[in-house]
Amino acid sequence: MRHTHLTHAIGFTLALLMISSQVVQTASADSDTFTLKLAAPILRWDEAIPLGNGMLGGLLWGEKNTIHLSLDRGDLWDETTPPEILEGNWNYANMKQLIKDNWGEFGRRYDRIYNQPAPTKLPGGRLTLTLSPDRHVQTFSLDMKQALGTAQFDNGSNLQCFFPATERVALMRIADPAITCAFKRPDGLNKLKYPPAEFGQAEGMSWMVQQAADGLVYATLTATRVINNQTLVGIAIATNQEDPDEPDALALARRRVQRILNIGFDQALTTHLQWWNRFWNISDLVIPDERIQRHYNLVKYFYGAASRPDAPSMPLQAVWTQDSGGLPPWKGDFHHDLNTQMTYLAYHTAGLTDAGLSFLNHMWDLLPQYRSFARDFFGVEGAAIPAVMSLNGKPLGGWPQYALSPSYAIWIGQSFYLHWKHTMDPTFLRERAYPWLNEIICTIVQLLVDKDGKLYFELSSSSEIHNNSPKAYLTPNSNQDLAMLIWAFEAMAEITTALDRPDEAKKWRALRERLDDLAIDADNVLMFSPDEPFNQSHRHHAHVMAIHPFATLNIDGSDHDRQIITASLNKMDELGTQAWTGYSFSWFASLLARAGMPEKAYQYLATYEHAFILRNGFHCNGDQLKAGLSGFTYRPFTLEGNFLAMEAVHDMVLQSWPVNILKDPTPVIRLFPAMPWAWHNASFHNLHAEGGFLVSATRQNNATTQFSIQATCTGELRLRDNFGPATPQFNRQVRKVGPNYVITLNQGDTLTGHIPAPPQIPDEPDASTKARQVIQKLDDLPK
C-alpha cells in the first residue's frame, strides 16, 4: 500500500519544532534514565534491544560470541483473502441472521475465520553474526537519545548497531575483522506455503529473495566490509512494491546497502543523531521516580523508532514482530478495539506530531477500502472499518462481536479530533478531520434503528466481556457503544460549529438528544449494558470509556457525575485485578488520574511497570512476577500497555479537556492535577495541551512554583486554579471566572506565573502511605 503522506503538510508542525528548540532543556538530570542496560545473555527475541526507523525494525540479542538481529519491516504482510469470505454472502445481514438461526455456522464463517494462517504480518527473519571465539558478550545496551544499540564484550571491544533515521537500512560496526554472517528464513513462512526462498552471495554480499502472496516479493540483503580491523555490516529489506522506479527488490536492497557502506558508520551516525536530537527536543518531562521515568523515556523512544509519517502505522508489535519460529500472536494485526487507539493516544500531549501522522495517514489512505467495506459488508453508503484488520484494511474476523462492530471507527476518529484540538490547525480540521469523521459517523447513523424516539445499534457489545460466546451480544446500547455515540455526536457538533456549518451542527445536536443516558445501577456504578451490571473483574475497561478516553463524563460535571465516577472506579478496585492484563493497569492509572485520585493512580502505574513488562520494557499481557496480580501469567507482548503508561504520566502532570464539548468546547488546562505525594519535585517543558498551547511547569515541595503557557494560535486560555492558597504572579492581566484564570492570548503570546516554593514538603497522607507500601512489596519480590 502506498501512503499519501501528510508529513509537515501542516505548517503548524514546523513552527512547533522551532518554538520547542528554543526553550526545551535537557530531558533529565539523570541521563541513565535514557539508557536500557541488560546483562548478557539475552536468549529470547522479546527481551532484546529494540531498534528501528519507522519502516524497519530490529531486535539485538545473543550470548557468548553469537549475536542475533531479528529483522522486521512494517509493510511485510500476507493479504490473502480467507476462503470463508470467498464463499460469498459474507456480510452483516447474513451474520445477524446466523446469530439467530445457526450459531455454529456463524462461528465457522465469522469467528473461526481468524484461525486461517492469513492474512498476517510476516516476520522478517534473523541475521546471526558469529564473532571470534575469544569474544564473549557481557552486556547489551540501548542509548535512547542516540537510538544506538551496543553489545559490549569481555575484551573491551563492542558491536554497535543503529537503523539510520532517514535511510531504510541498518548498519553495524564490530571491532572484529573475522566474523561470519548467516541469515535464517522465518519458519513461520512454511505455514503459508510459499515457494522456497532463493539464496545467493557474491562480492561480500549475501541475500534471500522470497515470493509471498499477491505478487509481493521481498529481499533481505547483508553486505560486509572490513576497514581498519573493524567490520561494517549493512542490512536492508526491500520489496518490489515500494519504489515504482525499481521493481526489483534485490537490486533496491543492494543499492541501499552499498550507499550506506560508502557513507560510512561515523557520517551516517552523525546524520542519524541530528534527527534524534530534533526528536528529543520537542518536549521533555522529569519526575522523581527512576523506574517510571525510564519507562516513559523508552516509550517515547518507541514513537521515534517505530512510527513515521511515510511508513505504516504500528500494529500490535510495531516493527518488532515475533521471531520464535512461528507467525506473530494475533497475526500482528491492527486491533481497533483498544490497541491502535491507545497506542496513538500519548503522542498528542508529547507533541510527537510526525509519529502520530503515521496513524492518521494510514487511516486516511484506507478510505477507499473503508468505503468498499461499508457497501459490501454493511450494505450502506459511506465508510466503515473492520475493527480487526490487515495492513490494507481487510477484515480478519474472529470474535465478531468486536471485530465486526461498526462503533470502533468512532474511537479511531478521536485520534483525528485530538490531533486538531492539540494543534488547532484549521487546514487539518477542514481537509482531514472533518471529512474523515463525517464520512465514518454518517455511516454509523445509517446503522442505528429508532425505538420510541431513541437510537440503538441492532447488535451491541462491550469489549471482550463474555469473550466470543452468545452472551457477548448485550442489550443495546452497551455503555461502551453509548459512550462512543455520545462523544461522536457532540464532537461533530463542535467541529461543524468551528467550520461555520450551523445546519450540520443542529443535526448532530438533535441526534445527541436521541441517545439514552449511560446505564448505572442502584449504587451509581456504570454498567456493561442497560440490563447487565458491572459485577466481575474484567480486563477491558470499556464500560467506563465515557470517563477516559472520551471525558464526556468528568469530575467538573454535576455532583451526580462525580458520584458515578467515584462509585464506578471504586467498584473496579473492589472487584480486583484477577481478570486484568497488563494494559488494564496502565489504563486504570489514567482513569484514576482523571478522577483526581493520584495515589491510587501511582499505585496502579507502578504495579504495571513492576509486573507487566519484560526486562527490555516491552509490555506483556500477563503477570511476570507471578505475584497473584492477575490470573494471566503468559507473555505475548503488545505495545498498547506501554503507551497507556506514558499517557497515565501525562494525565498526572497535565490535563486539558473541556467540561462539556457540546455546550462549551474550550478546554481547561490543569497543571499537576494528579500528582502523588511522593513526587515532590517535577517539571515538564513544551507538553502540548488542547487549544493549541505549549505548556511548561515546575513543581517543588509538592506545589507548582512556575509555569509558562504559549499560544500557538489565537484563543482563550482557561487555567484551573489548583494552586491552593497561593496566587500566581502573572506577567499579564488575567481575570478569575469561577475556578479558572482566563485570558485571551494571541498567537505567540505567553502567559507565565510564579509562586514561591513552600518551605517544606507537606506531611504524607494516609493514601500515599498505603500506595507506597503496595509498591514496596512489589520491589521486594524476586525478579
Description:
It is a single chain. With 783 residues, this protein is α+β, with helices and mostly antiparallel strands. Helices cover 34% and strands 21% of the residues. It contains 21 helices and 31 strands. The strands form 8 sheets. The protein has a 9-stranded antiparallel beta sheet with strand order 1-8-9-10-11-16-15-14-13, covered by helices on one side. A hairpin with a 5-residue loop joins strand 14 and strand 15 (217-227). Helix 3 runs antiparallel to helix 4 (103-111). The radius of gyration is 26 Å and the shape is globular. Mean pLDDT is 95; it is low at 1-30.
Quick overview:
The chain has 21 helices and 31 strands.
Keywords:
783 residues; alpha+beta; nine-stranded antiparallel beta sheet; six-stranded antiparallel beta sheet; 21 helices; 34% helix; 21% strand; globular; disordered N terminus
How many strand segments?
31
- SSE class: alpha+beta
Helix content: 25-40%
Q: Please, what is the average pLDDT? A: 95
Task: Extract low-pLDDT stretches.
Answer: 1-30
**What is the overall shape?**
globular
Provide the spatial order of strands within the biggest beta sheet. 1-8-9-10-11-16-15-14-13
Characterize the largest beta sheet: strand count, sense, and whether it forms a barrel: 9 strands, antiparallel
How many angstroms separate the termini? 43 Å
| Rg, alpha carbons | 26 Å
How much strand? Answer: 15-25%
Number of helices: 21
